[in-house]
Amino acid sequence: MVDLQQALQQVKGLNWANATVSFFIVKRKLVRRDATYEALGVNVDDKLRHKLRGIVVTCIKKANQAREYDFNTSDLDNDVLGIETADTDLQQLIEALTSNESPPPASNYEDLLGAWLYITRLDLSDTSPLYAVRRVSEGWTTKKVSQLISMIFTNSTLVDLDQKDIFRIDGKIDFFSHAGTLFIADKKNFEAALNFRGGMLRNRDAIVEKFVAAALFADARQIAELVGDNMRRLRKLSQVKRAEYYSVDSFRENLKRVSAEESWGIVYDDEGKIVVTEDDIDTVLTVLNNDRLKSPINQEGFDVDVKHRIDE
Q1: Which of 32, 216, 217, 275 could disulfide-link to 267, CB 3.0 to 4.6 Å?
Q2: 130 and 177 in contact (C-beta within 8 Å)?
Q3: What pairs with residue 29 in β-bridges?
Q4: How many whole angstroms separate alpha carbon 183 and alpha carbon 278?
Q5: DSSP β-bridge partners for residue 182
Q6: Neighbours of 64 (CB within 10 A)
Q7: Which of 128, 125, 121 is nearest to 102 (CA)?
Q8: What are phi and psi of 238, to 5 degrees?
Q9: Contact (Cβ atoms closer than 8 angstroms) between residue 26 and residue 118
Q10: Which of 296, 86, 45 is nearest to 177 (CA)?
Q11: Which neighbouring-strand residues pair with 226?
Q12: Would the pTM count as exceeding 0.85?
């Protein structure tokens, strides 16, 4: 993977305030957990282009540090998480937006109803386009916020606007992509917008097959049943897949020895394979990702969701 901080600095070093602006809405269909997307181009006037560009520029300026995407939640403040765009559903949307056939245009009010997210594309010469994405909120159309009244003050009179033709953009960006790297400002919205649960379900099934090949568990396929679609367990299992500690013989040997010494309760059968049950699945996922840690200061132990390796 690219150096995330270097990639972020490259984005921050470009003058996006001079970029041309294109705007798209995206609709999503979810069938058996698989998502398909349809993009529509939306014509916007110069004033709105200026505002859309300003929202993206502000988001980029706020981003201080880039950290590798972690499947477990942590506070971001003004940091961003980085992941390869190709590892997400955004890749297929970008391919649709850059294909020879441009997305069809939205030609009437009804076309904008049911939008799942919207994309602001910024283009500069001599660099890749930047795609900034925001998941559509409940306030996108006034049909969903009928308790609010929109008005304008004109000719010394407060005038009620026609509610049905109004759409609202809230001035935030959930994530943006440039040159193959995606930076996440709002992790929760990112995972919801791009059907990341579906990706973690695929991760679950893929790693179970690896567990079978590695002969790590007495019944590796039971892992899929115990994890199910539980989001916390899916996150843990996806971390296990990425780290691959389990594939190292010495790690597996040490795990068995330390588990016995520390009375962690992990059960092994007569062939030395882990027997996992509902009672200990969370402990097994924790130790397989090396998330059971002990302080060298006072020997106090912790189970952690997020950890950062100390540079040696």
Answers
A1: 275
A2: yes
A3: 36
A4: 36
A5: 83, 177
A6: 13
A7: 121
A8: -65, -35
A9: yes
A10: 86
A11: none
A12: no
Tell me if 38 sits within 8 A of 10, measured CB to CB.
no
* 59, 60, 61, 125, 190 from 185: Cα distances, Å: 8, 9, 12, 25, 8
Task: Give residue 253's pLDDT band: very low, low, confident or very high (50, 70, 90).
Answer: very high
Q: Is the pLDDT of residue 36 over 50?
A: yes
Structure tokens at 50: 């200026």
Alpha carbons 221 and 204: distance in angstroms, whole number: 10
Amino acid, res. 297: I
pLDDT at 155: 65
**pLDDT tens digits, residue range 40-75?**
999 999 999 999 999 999 999 999 999 988 877 666
Q: Are 27 and 106 in contact (CB under 8 A)?
A: no
Instruction: Calculate the CA dihedral of residues 104, 107, 108, 112 and round it to 10 degrees.
Output: 30
Q: Which residues pair with 35 in a beta bridge?
A: 30
Helix (H) or strand (E) holding 157: strand 157-160
Distance CA 115, CA 105 (A): 14
- Alpha carbon distance 215, 189 (integer Å): 37
Kind plus residue range of the DSSP H or E element containing 204: helix 196-214
- Of the pLDDT bands very low, low, confident and very high (cuts 50, 70, 90), residue 150 is low
| Mean pLDDT, the chain, whole residue set | 89
User: CB atoms < 10 A from the CB of 95, how many?
Assistant: 9
- pLDDT tens for residues 170-220? 889 999 999 999 999 999 999 989 988 787 888 899 999 999 999 999 999
List the chain domain ranges: 4-194, 198-303
The per-residue DSSP string of 40-102 comes to: EE----HHHHHHHHHHHHHHHHH---EEE--SS----TT-EEEEEGGGSTHHHHHHHHTSSSP
